[in-house]
């Protein structure tokens, strides 16, 4: 007997300023949604030319960046550098410490670079791991069509309708599915039991849930599901003017305390003080931050 997950709440992600001139719609990590382990933050970002996220540190978490439009360059103090383009993802494990910059491509037509960035907590025993990156290119992502082609799913991480994702992208187990439903289409997606899950709506209106619990949700909302149940049901009504497009994410909750100070995510107040100290004294993982400046960060107009 499968049980469809009910919706705990759905709320609009309100746009705010972040970084240097960037705009983000933050949903996780706001008063609306905290303590939703393993997720720490979800930003739907829009970065126009001349804006970005210049040199900044991280410790204790993973960031997953999914680019929807444009391109974003990244560069860190270990000499790693690269670019993700529309449809690509980057999984970055900060571990014991990283300092990097994320800067948008200056599109000749002045158009914005748009994407999603999700912060995922690391289990306590991995907080001090070495930093690492994995890029996942759009062409590497397995895809599957269901409901006679009315539903298209990109299996970024996890499983959907018998299709498995590329393995070992993040340390904390997370499923990420990009789902697009044409008018009249419906999908039933299994999720691991006991995992926390949400859907973030990018466009159109999608109805989530079944029977009296069914709720239709518009653009830019975070739909938070109850932990109970093993599947999520979503459909778009026959007469809809546009497709429903959303990102469905689920993750294994971590049984640990979260003490966060900006980009440092640890388990105790002492560890946060230590992180600040290590960053300021260039030690315990931040040695290479001393005197480092990214090339791409220099493009910022001061």
UniProtKB/TrEMBL annotation:
Domain Pirin N-terminal intervals: 22-120
Query: Domain Pirin C-terminal spans what residues?
Result: 177-284
Q: Which residues form the signal peptide?
A: none
Similarity remark: Belongs to the pirin family.
UniProt cofactor(s) = Fe cation
Cofactor note as given: Binds 1 Fe cation per subunit.
Keyword Iron on entry:
yes
**Protein name as it appears in the record:** Probable pirin
Residues annotated to bind Fe cation: 56, 58, 100, 102
Instruction: Say which species the protein is native to.
Output: Phialocephala subalpina
Among the GO molecular function terms of this UniProt record, one is: metal ion binding
């Amino acid at each position: 007997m499968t049980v469809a997950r009910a919706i705990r709440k759905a709320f609009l992600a309100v746009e705010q300023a972040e970084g240097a001139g960037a705009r983000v719609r933050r949903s996780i990590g706001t008063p609306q949604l905290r303590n939703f382990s393993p997720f720490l933050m979800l930003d739907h970002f829009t970065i126009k030319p001349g804006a970005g996220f210049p040199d900044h540190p991280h410790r204790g978490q993973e960031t997953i960046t999914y680019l929807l439009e444009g391109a974003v360059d990244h560069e860190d103090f270990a000499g790693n550098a690269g670019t993700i383009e529309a449809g690509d993802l980057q999984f970055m494990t900060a571990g014991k410490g990283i300092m990097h910059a994320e800067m948008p491509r200056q599109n000749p037509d002045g158009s914005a670079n748009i994407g999603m960035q999700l912060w995922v907590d690391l289990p306590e025993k991995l907080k001090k791991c070495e930093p690492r990156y994995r890029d996942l290119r759009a062409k590497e992502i397995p895809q599957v069509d269901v409901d006679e082609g009315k539903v298209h799913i990109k299996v970024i991480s996890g499983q959907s309708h018998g299709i498995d994702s590329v393995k070992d992208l993040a340390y904390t187990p997370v499923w990420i599915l990009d789902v697009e439903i044409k008018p009249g289409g419906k999908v039933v997606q299994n999720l691991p039991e006991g995992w926390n899950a949400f859907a973030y709506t990018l466009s159109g209106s999608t109805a989530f849930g079944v029977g009296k619990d069914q709720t239709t949700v518009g653009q830019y909302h975070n739909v938070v599901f109850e932990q109970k149940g093993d599947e999520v049901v979503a459909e778009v009504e026959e007469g809809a003017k546009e497709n429903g497009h959303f990102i469905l994410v689920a993750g294994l909750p971590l049984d640990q305390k979260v003490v966060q100070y900006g980009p440092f995510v640890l388990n105790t107040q002492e560890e946060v003080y230590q992180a600040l100290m290590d960053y300021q004294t260039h030690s315990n993982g931040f040695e290479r931050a001393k005197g480092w400046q990214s090339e791409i960060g220099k493009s910022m107009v001061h």
